[in-house]
Design brief:
CATH class: Mainly Beta
Bound molecules: copper (II) ion
Strand content: 35-45%
Strand order of the largest sheet: 3-9-8-5-6
CATH architecture: Sandwich
CATH superfamily: Cupredoxins -  blue copper proteins
Structural class: alpha+beta
Oligomer: single chain
Radius of gyration: 16 Å
Number of strands: 9
Distance between the termini: 35 Å
Amino acid sequence: MKKIILLASTLTVAVSMHAAEHVISQKGKAFAPGTMKVKVGDKIIFKNNDGFAHNAFSDNEANEFDIGMQKPGQDVTIEMKKPGKVEVECAIHPNMHMTIEVVE
Ligand SMILES: [Cu+2]
């Protein structure tokens, strides 16, 4: 039993060493930065720095996601699972968009 626990914690360390975290801010009805290059397995943290809700999503097949209603001050983390271009939009504010390039 002890061996299994040790193996599990070693794996967790190995994964977290390779995966980077990137922050995307939503403020003034805009994503910042406007473009971002990340690696497969990296995590994206969406921060809502506005006083109202956002709903970031992407229809790009490789990394399709929909955060849903994200309240002010809330952080939502998603993982980029496959390489490709990810065009991020906000379902509430049509003028909001940014692009994430995911590479191997
Ligand atoms: Cu929005």
